[in-house]
Write a structure and sequence with these properties.
Length: about 375
């Protein structure tokens, strides 16, 4: 399965390289069926199919997941091959609807994805009925509120595989400046989420989180790897090597290293300030038994104060969806709108019109500020 979201034509080319339209099924996923980038990509793939197999092949090689069946049909997709979902499902909360279930089922089979849905459902139950002191999304949400609004730390990096999901769902939901009633917030809300899987971040942004800005971190690790590689002669298995870092990094952030410790290690005096770590940097760790569709169950939640709490099976994605809702409730914001993405989209419409007018009728660039006019003029000259 290949997935395509970015409208950059290079991404389209990369995705279709080596594919044969005759043996390819394209799933167009768009709630509204109007999103400019998604629909241009869809039209590009429609052209790719019909130029090789003829226009009648489109209905057989393209299916849709959407709430807008009228536009699906107008596009040329057979509405019988459209997978609907409820219009109240927001894009970023749609992984458990046909939006996620269809592509994931095509990749892994529905029996696997059913387990994923059951895992997510178990978290809904957990969120609904577990007392607050044992309620994982509530605890995570409260920690975020503490870090962001009380301690003033705006960002949170992830050491996990699903940081792009968290980045979307968290930043689009809670990146708000007014309350649900439209009153400007007297505090900062939302957080900057970014991350890298495994140890990648250690070789890039971890320098900043250890000795630069204070950034609360989430570490997500698993006990049993799907790849139990243990090379002869190595001190530990490859997974233990990965996990050694998982256990070490939160301690380094929490405890740091003092000048006294460095002096005892005979570190040259001029290097002591550079090798000192302040410590007292917050992080939390989630330890999962293994990665499978249902699980990603029975984690141990650990925070830097070394209190543990366990719970039965859950789905990580559902935990983070609920955590975002908890934060939104406490901050008093609407986590389910995203007006902030609109302005850029409407300005892009103006630019698109200008590019068309300039390229087809030679019209001068006008109506933009000096900087944009200069850039657009230069862009059109080349
Ligand atoms: O599913 P669509 O209607 O194409 O919307 C696609 C995207 O549109 C907007 O950017 C929303 O903010 C996203 O959350 C959504 O995923």
């Amino acid at each position: 399965m290949c997935s395509l979201a970015n409208v950059d034509p290079i991404d389209v080319a990369r995705n279709i390289t080596g594919l044969n339209p005759e043996t390819t099924l394209v799933v167009v996923v768009s709630k509204t069926f109007t999103t400019a980038e998604t629909m241009l990509n869809a039209r590009t793939l429609r052209e790719w199919i019909s130029s090789t197999l003829g226009p009648s092949a489109v209905a057989k090689h393209m299916v849709a997941v959407s709430t807008n069946l009228t536009l699906v049909e107008k596009f040329g997709i057979d509405p019988n091959n459209a997978f609907a979902f409820w219009d109240w499902v927001g894009g970023r909360y749609s992984v458990c609807s046909a939006v996620g279930v269809l592509p994931l089922s095509l990749q892994y089979g529905f029996s696997v994805i059913e387990k994923f849905l059951k895992g997510a459902s178990s978290i809904d139950q957990h969120m609904h009925s577990e007392p607050f002191e044992r309620n994982i999304p509530v605890l995570l949400g409260l920690l975020s509120i503490w870090n962001v609004s009380f301690l003033g730390y705006p960002a949170r990096p992830w050491r996990s595989l699903h940081h792009t999901f968290n980045r979307h769902v968290s930043m689009e939901s809670n990146g708000k400046g007014v309350s649900i009633d439209g009153v400007p917030l007297p505090f900062e809300a939302g957080e900057i989420d970014f991350g890298e899987p495994g140890t990648n971040g250690q070789h890039s942004f971890y320098q900043l989180i250890h000795q630069g800005r204070i950034i609360p971190c989430d570490f997500i690790g698993v006990i049993k790897s799907q790849q139990p590689v243990y090379l002869r002669g190595e001190v530990v298995s490859n997974h233990d090597e990965l996990m050694s870092n998982f256990f070490a990094q939160p301690d380094a952030l929490a405890n740091g290293k003092t000048p006294e410790e460095l002096q005892k290690e005979n570190v040259a005096p001029h290097l002591v300030p550079h090798k000192t770590f302040s410590g007292n940097r917050p992080s939390l760790s989630l330890l999962l038994p293994s990665l499978n569709a249902y699980n990603i169950g029975q984690p141990i939640l650990q925070n830097v104060s070394r209190k543990y709490c366990t719970l039965n099976a859950f789905s990580l994605l559902a935990i983070y969806e609920h955590r975002i809702a908890v934060e939104g409730f406490i901050w008093g914001i609407n986590s389910f709108d995203q007006w902030g993405v609109e302005l850029g989209k409407s300005l892009a419409t103006q630019v698109r019109k200008q590019l068309n007018a300039s390229r087809t009728k030679g019209e001068q660039v006008e109506g933009f500020n000096f900087s944009t006019t200069t850039l657009l003029t230069r862009y059109l000259q080349v």
